[in-house]
Structure formats: structure tokens, C-alpha cells
């Protein structure tokens, strides 16, 4: 890269800026005349809507409420909001600001410090892996949505061909003891002492007949003392059987991939087709789609909240969700859980926020949007807790158990716990369809914006290739098709094990490594004061000084804390089913670590390439590789031009020079 001898070329000099092959930049501009101009958001609010659509998703609904009740109820909000202030908001603001300042996404955004351009590649690898596995959640949600379009939910009874003899469509107080000997465990008097909680579809007589056969098949009598037999009975419920035997048809382990589930395959194909048509016309088209996909879930959430609050036991569930236990705040894991939740719910270090920021106009007020986004994100998480726990309170009351026995996190909440609760409501199919439609809409915009982030990485890396004709649309089709093929491994009988492998290792602790290096790069390599000047150029005023304190010290320390706690608490992946705990074999764990390292390995690799391409001693090479590659409008009036590399505005890509 040619620097400009300490000064910005004037217009005449720009017209004769010479390429290495002897052609001028002006000539290159003529050859690039057919390249489409890079898009920007049609409206200022489109950026905020896109950020909310991408980051506010399923984790807000099925993870935050569980973490809140497990980690001290309302007391958990203290570490949560502190982590938002010192970790989430500063990192979010840094990423969108880098994208907006450089007006490019992915690897090219980090031309602000070419030595660390590997950050863009690392983020792109992670978001690609996340896109492959996240769409499986949409696949399951589509499946449940279609299954809800019936007069009776298929997981509300045991009369389906996939149900086992152990299936029982009611509830048993399994903690009770029967004062009888082993031969009496299934006689009439013993059964009369056993409490049944039958669902609406089954009266108590039917429940009693059902449990008789179950006890005959599955009773394991233990602790026989004083003529008292305590029964440990495995009774399978129809919700779990629908999930494991019908939807997943799950195999014994990752070593048994089994056959492709063609019904899930069609749902996966549908999900990718929808994603493609949401983004194929660029951000102006996807921006319009997001007005629907971002706002509609809130309407559905309000409907579900109103319904939940009218149920018996709803207030007990909400109290369980919110009553504070301040003693939990003394546990470091609670603070780590808060930090992890903030990081994941803000979708940091995936490169997509950088890409979304790059579509802003140079003077867009992303500083304001950052705080509005944080408010919306937290509001959604807290509101989702009311929706979930009002229904779980009702479910616990129906089963006569404590709420912590029915509360689950992650996919278990969406595909087992909540469907089980909905099945007990009047007009159950309606509420089930509304719930899964909400899940689809929450996940859909997160998915297609994530794909947009990866596509932006590729297009900005090769603009002369993909900004012509319909090549971008073809690229999106290729990305969706390849992702669909990878997703097929997760819709076979062993697909759940592959999904868990992707989910556990593709993101895990690698995003903390990326975020930490981002902070160090901007604060200490590019220079925090220089970047503050750049922000003033964009926003027209000085950013609050506390942000500088966060970027230089508080946020890196916060990220380092999360990484260290994650390393200390690391355990090899296992998959917990209701009947068995599956431990992954070592070869599968090895594949997981390959996925994890496949992203961050690019940071030292590309850094090494940049150093190799530079000239001089080793230190001189590092210094040269650290010089930002800037255009005229990005240069400060007081800039030391010996410390930058300059690109004329009529050059599409620095490789043209």
C-alpha cells in the first residue's frame, strides 16, 4: 500500500494516482463503472430496527427468565444491568461505530488496524456456524406451529402411534410412598392412595387405568423397610415423547446419525427459503420486512401475557420469578451468568453489528441508537419472564409441584415445558399456534440479519465480483444452500447431538477472545484519542468520557473475567434427556474444538500475513501493518499522515492500488 508522503493528494493528484500495474485510479474507476454503489439504510430508524431484530431473539425468551429465577430473582437484575453498562453497551457501541466509520463490514472494517483484520474473518466464521445451527431452532418452531393447526394437540394425549406403553397423559405425585409390599404395588387399594393429576383430555378413571399398566411395566421397588415400598417409577409424558420420538426420533448418540427426518427436512428447507427472500433484495428490502418481524412478536407476547395473567397460579409464578434473594449476589457464577447473558443477547463479536453499522450514513447518530437498543433488549427479556412464568405458575399448580420442577431453560422451555402448559389450557391449539408463531418471528429476523452479516463480509471483500448484476442474489442463494446442506446433519435421527455440538463449541468462549482483542485494538493500537476524534467527526459532538474509561479498562477486564470463569467452569459436552444422560465421545469433543479454533485462528494468521507483506525490521513491519487504511473523509484535520495509508475515493478496493 502506498502512503502519500505525509499529505492528502489534491484532486489532480488523485486523478493520476498510479496502480502498481501502471494504470491510473481514474482508469480503474472507469472499469468499475458497472459496480453497484454500496447501499445505506432508507430511514434512520432502519438501523435500530435491524439491531433489535438481530439481537433480540430466542435467548431473551427462553434463557433470561430461567437465569433470573435461578440466580436470585429480582436481585439478578443488579448484576444484569451493571453488566449491560460496563460490558454490553460499550462493546455494542464500539462495533457499530467501527462499521459506521469505515463504511464496510467484515474484514474490511478492520482496515482501521490491518494487523488485526483477522477479527473480521473470525467473526464471519462464527456467524456462519451460528446461522447453520440457529436455523434448526426455526425448523423445530415451524414443525410445532404446523402441528398446532389441529383441533387437539398431538402432545396432549398418548393415543399416537409414536407413544410407548409408559406414556401417561396426566400427572403423578411421584414422591408418595405406598404402604404395601411389592405384590400390592398395582392393586386397587394402593392405586387409590396414589394422587393423579389428569389433563383435561383424561378423566381420573382413564388415568387410573393408564397408570396401572405403567406400573406393571416400569416399577422399580427400592428401600423396602418397615413394609414400605418407595416407588421409583419412570413415567413418560406425551410432551416428551412427542419431542423425542416424533419430532427428533432421537438415536442413541452422535455415532448413530440415522436417517434424515424428511418432515424436519422440509421445515428446514422452508426456513431457508424464507430467509433467502427476506434479504435477496438487499438491506432496503430486508429493512421493510423487519418492520413486521420485529414488531409482531411484541403484539403476540402481549396477547400471551394477558392470557397467562388470567390463569390460576400465575401470580405464584411471577413471584417465583421476581422475589429477590440478595444472598445469591455473593456467588461469582451469578455475575458470570449475567455477563454471559448480556453478551449473547446483544449478539456481540459476531461481525453482524459491524456490518449493520456500515450501512449507516457517516453522520448517523448511532450513539443514541445504542442506548435505545439496550432499553429495548432489557425490556424484552424482563417482559418475556412475565409471559413464561405466569404460565409455569399455572402448570405447577395443576401438577401440584413447585415451580422449579417445571422451569426449564433453552429449547427444553420452548419445546417441552411451555407446550405442556399450553396443552392444559382451553382452546389449546390456538395458544400453541400463537406461541410458536412468536418464536418463529423472533428467530427469523435474527437469522436473516445474521446471514446478511456474513454476505456483507463476502461482498465487501470482493466488491468487483459481487456488486454487479444479480451476483449478490446468487451469492445469497449459494450461502443459504450450503447452510441447508450442513443443516441436514441436524435433522437426522442423531441431529440433536450435532446441534448441541455446534451450539456449545461454535460460539462458546471464542466470542470473548474476539471482543477482548477488539477493545485492545481500538484503545491501544489504533489509539483511543484518535478514535474519539473520529466519533466527534461522525456525531458532531464529543462522546461521554465514561465510554473511554470502559473501552480502555472496565470492559476489557469484564470480558477477561467472563473468559476466565468460562475456562474454569468448562466441562465436556453432554446431552441430558429425561431418561438418560449422554456423554459425548472424545472424537466428537475434538470436532467441537476444531470448530472453536476455526474462527480465532484467523487472527494470528492474517496478522502474520500483514507483517510478512510489510518491509523493514520486525518492529517496523508491525508498525507498518498497524497503520489504518483510510479515505479522505475519515482523516482528522490534525492527522499525522505518516501514520496512515490513504485510498482515493474513486478506488473501489485497496487491492486496486
TrEMBL record:
Keywords: Disulfide bond, Membrane, Metal-binding, Sodium, Symport, Transmembrane, Transmembrane helix, Transport. Na(+) binds at residues 53, 60, 345, 377, 442, 445-446. Belongs to the sodium:neurotransmitter symporter (SNF) (TC 2.A.22) family. The keyword Repressor does not apply. GO terms for molecular function: gamma-aminobutyric acid:sodium:chloride symporter activity; metal ion binding. The keyword Metal-binding applies. Disulfide bonds join 158-167. PROSITE patterns: NA_NEUROTRAN_SYMP_1, NA_NEUROTRAN_SYMP_2, NA_NEUROTRAN_SYMP_3. Its main location: membrane. The lineage of its organism: Eukaryota, Metazoa, Spiralia, Lophotrochozoa, Mollusca. This is Transporter. One of its GO terms (cellular component) is plasma membrane. It comes from the Eukaryota. The chain crosses the membrane at residues 45-62, 74-94, 115-146, 259-279, 291-310, 342-359, 371-397, 474-499, 511-528, 549-570, 590-612.
Amino acid at each position: 500500500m502506498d502512503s502519500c508522503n505525509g499529505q492528502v493528494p489534491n484532486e489532480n493528484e488523485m486523478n493520476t494516482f498510479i496502480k502498481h500495474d501502471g494504470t491510473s485510479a481514474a482508469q480503474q474507476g472507469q472499469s468499475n463503472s458497472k459496480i453497484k454503489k454500496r447501499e445505506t439504510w432508507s430511514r434512520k430508524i432502519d438501523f435500530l430496527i435491524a439491531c433489535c431484530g438481530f439481537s433480540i431473539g430466542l435467548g431473551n425468551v427462553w434463557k433470561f427468565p430461567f437465569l433470573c429465577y435461578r440466580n436470585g430473582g429480582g436481585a439478578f437484575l443488579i448484576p444484569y444491568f451493571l453488566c449491560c453498562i460496563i460490558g454490553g453497551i460499550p462493546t455494542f457501541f464500539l462495533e457499530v461505530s467501527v462499521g459506521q466509520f469505515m463504511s464496510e463490514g467484515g474484514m474490511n472494517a478492520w482496515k482501521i488496524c490491518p494487523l488485526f483484520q483477522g477479527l473480521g474473518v473470525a467473526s464471519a466464521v462464527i456467524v456462519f456456524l451460528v446461522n447453520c445451527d440457529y436455523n434448526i431452532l426455526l425448523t423445530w418452531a415451524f414443525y410445532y406451529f404446523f402441528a398446532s393447526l389441529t383441533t387437539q394437540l398431538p402432545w396432549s394425549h398418548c393415543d399416537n402411534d409414536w407413544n410407548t406403553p409408559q406414556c401417561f397423559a396426566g400427572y403423578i405425585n411421584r414422591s408418595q410412598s405406598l404402604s404395601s409390599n411389592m405384590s400390592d404395588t398395582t392393586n386397587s387399594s394402593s392405586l387409590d392412595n396414589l394422587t393423579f393429576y389428569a389433563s383435561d383430555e383424561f378423566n381420573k378413571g382413564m388415568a387410573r387405568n393408564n397408570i396401572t399398566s405403567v406400573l406393571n411395566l416400569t416399577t422399580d421397588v427400592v428401600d423396602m423397610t418397615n413394609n414400605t415400598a418407595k416407588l421409583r417409577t419412570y413415567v413418560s409424558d406425551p410432551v416428551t415423547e412427542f419431542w423425542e420420538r416424533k419430532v427428533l426420533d432421537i438415536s442413541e448418540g452422535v455415532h448413530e446419525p440415522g436417517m434424515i427426518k424428511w418432515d424436519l427436512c422440509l421445515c428446514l428447507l422452508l426456513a431457508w427459503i424464507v430467509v433467502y427472500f427476506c434479504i435477496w433484495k438487499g438491506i432496503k428490502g430486508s429493512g421493510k420486512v423487519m418492520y413486521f418481524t420485529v414488531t409482531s412478536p411484541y403484539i403476540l407476547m402481549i396477547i400471551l401475557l394477558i392470557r397467562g395473567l388470567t390463569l390460576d397460579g400465575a401470580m405464584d409464578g411471577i413471584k417465583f420469578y421476581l422475589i429477590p434473594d440478595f444472598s445469591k449476589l455473593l456467588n461469582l457464577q451469578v455475575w458470570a451468568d449475567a455477563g454471559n447473558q448480556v453478551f449473547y443477547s446483544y449478539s456481540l463479536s459476531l461481525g453482524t453489528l459491524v456490518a449493520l453499522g456500515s450501512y449507516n450514513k457517516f453522520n448517523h447518530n448511532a450513539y443514541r441508537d445504542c442506548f435505545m437498543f439496550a432499553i429495548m433488549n432489557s425490556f424484552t427479556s424482563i417482559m418475556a419472564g412475565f409471559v413464561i412464568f405466569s404460565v409455569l405458575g399455572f402448570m405447577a399448580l395443576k401438577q401440584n409441584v413447585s415451580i422449579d420442577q417445571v422451569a426449564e431453560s433453552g429449547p427444553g422451555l420452548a419445546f417441552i415445558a411451555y407446550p405442556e402448559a399450553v396443552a392444559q389450557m382451553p382452546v389449546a391449539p390456538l395458544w400453541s399456534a400463537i406461541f410458536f408463531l412468536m418464536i418463529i418471528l423472533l428467530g427469523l429476523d435474527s437469522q436473516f440479519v445474521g446471514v446478511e452479516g456474513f454476505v456483507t463480509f463476502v461482498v465487501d471483500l470482493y466488491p468487483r465480483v459481487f456488486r454487479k448484476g444479480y451476483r449478490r442474489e446468487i451469492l445469497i442463494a449459494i450461502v443459504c444452500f450450503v447452510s441447508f446442506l450442513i443443516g441436514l446433519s441436524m435433522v437426522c435421527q442423531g441431529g440433536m447431538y450435532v446441534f448441541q455440538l455446534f451450539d456449545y463449541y461454535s460460539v462458546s468462549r471464542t466470542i470473548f477472545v474476539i471482543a477482548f482483542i477488539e477493545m485492545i485494538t481500538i484503545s491501544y493500537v489504533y489509539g483511543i484519542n484518535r478514535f474519539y476524534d473520529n466519533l466527534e467527526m461522525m456525531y458532531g459532538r464529543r462522546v461521554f468520557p465514561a465510554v473511554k474509561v470502559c473501552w480502555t479498562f472496565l470492559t476489557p477486564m469484564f470480558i477477561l473475567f467472563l473468559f476466565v470463569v468460562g475456562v474454569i467452569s468448562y466441562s465436556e459436552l453432554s446431552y441430558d434427556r429425561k431418561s438418560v444422560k449422554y456423554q459425548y465421545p472424545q472424537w466428537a469433543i475434538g470436532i467441537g474444538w476444531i470448530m472453536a479454533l476455526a474462527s480465532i485462528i484467523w487472527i494470528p494468521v492474517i496478522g502474520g500475513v500483514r507483517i510478512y507483506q510489510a518491509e523493514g525490521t520486525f518492529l517496523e513491519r508491525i508498525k507498518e501493518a498497524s497503520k489504518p487504511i483510510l479515505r479522505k473523509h475519515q482523516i482528522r484535520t490534525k492527522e499525522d499522515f505518516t501514520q496512515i495509508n490513504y485510498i482515493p475515493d474513486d478506488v473501489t478496493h485497496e487491492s486496486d492500488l
